[in-house]
From TrEMBL:
<dbReference type="GO" id="GO:0003677">
    <property type="term" value="F:DNA binding"/>
</dbReference>
<protein>
    <submittedName>
        <fullName>Recombinase family protein</fullName>
    </submittedName>
</protein>
<comment type="similarity">
    <text>Belongs to the site-specific recombinase resolvase family.</text>
</comment>
<dbReference type="InterPro" id="IPR036162">
    <property type="entry name" value="Resolvase-like_N_sf"/>
</dbReference>
<dbReference type="InterPro" id="IPR006119">
    <property type="entry name" value="Resolv_N"/>
</dbReference>
<dbReference type="GO" id="GO:0015074">
    <property type="term" value="P:DNA integration"/>
</dbReference>
<keyword id="KW-0229">DNA integration</keyword>
<dbReference type="InterPro" id="IPR050639">
    <property type="entry name" value="SSR_resolvase"/>
</dbReference>
<dbReference type="InterPro" id="IPR006120">
    <property type="entry name" value="Resolvase_HTH_dom"/>
</dbReference>
<feature type="active site" description="O-(5'-phospho-DNA)-serine intermediate">
    <location>
        <position position="9"/>
    </location>
</feature>
<feature type="domain" description="Resolvase/invertase-type recombinase catalytic">
    <location>
        <begin position="1"/>
        <end position="134"/>
    </location>
</feature>
<dbReference type="GO" id="GO:0000150">
    <property type="term" value="F:DNA strand exchange activity"/>
</dbReference>
<dbReference type="InterPro" id="IPR009057">
    <property type="entry name" value="Homeodomain-like_sf"/>
</dbReference>
<dbReference type="Pfam" id="PF00239">
    <property type="entry name" value="Resolvase"/>
</dbReference>
<dbReference type="Pfam" id="PF02796">
    <property type="entry name" value="HTH_7"/>
</dbReference>
<keyword id="KW-0233">DNA recombination</keyword>
<dbReference type="InterPro" id="IPR006118">
    <property type="entry name" value="Recombinase_CS"/>
</dbReference>
Length: 181
């Protein structure tokens, strides 16, 4: 069975061009999706789960399959392992069942790995810059300075940890951990 997958990132974009190309490629069934890069792709996930060895997945461009090259390449590897043929209309020479096609896929995988390393490096630099600027990283504290001081006073007056924690909307464990810092 030959399945076509078309995706656009917003309601303002049209699926018509992709639909036309997939129809010309002889797709038996189509799955269309309108979603942004950060949202889940429920229809694609459902399509992928139903693909079997010998099926063919056709997309107009490789980036329709993932938010990044790396994600698309991982998906491509999964399809190969499962015996599903992937056809990318914009890359007619990308036949991942041949040595040349695998070479292209491997180059794309290398580029994806490089992209991930660069992303991690930019993230690390951002964290260093945020720390240098004195910005708090991570989850915001459950209790502010005034609440911590009040909690210490209440506990010093022999009020139960459970009661004090409940008053501030935290668990006793969180209260103890906060006071231990």
């Amino acid at each position: 069975m030959r399945y076509g997958y078309a995706r656009v990132s917003s309601e303002e974009q049209s699926l018509a061009r992709q639909r036309s190309q997939l129809c010309a490629a002889g797709c038996d069934q189509f799955v269309e999706e309108v979603q942004s890069g950060v949202k889940a792709r429920h229809r694609l996930d459902k399509l992928l789960a139903g693909l079997q060895a010998g099926d063919e997945l056709v997309v107009t461009e490789l980036d329709r399959l993932g938010r990044s090259t790396g994600e698309a390449v991982l998906l491509m590897d999964d399809l190969i392992r499962r015996g599903v043929v992937l056809r990318v209309l914009a890359l007619p020479s990308l036949d991942i069942t041949t040595n040349d096609g695998r070479l292209i896929a491997d180059i794309l995988a290398s580029l994806a790995a490089h992209e991930r390393r660069r992303t991690r490096e930019r993230q690390r630099q951002g964290i260093v810059a945020a720390k240098a600027a004195g910005r708090h990283l991570g989850r915001p504290p459950k209790l502010n300075g005034q609440q911590i001081a009040e909690a210490r006073t209440r506990l010093a007056a022999d009020e139960a940890v459970r009661v004090v924690a409940r008053a501030y909307g935290v668990t006793p464990k969180t209260l103890r951990a906060t006071l231990a810092r």
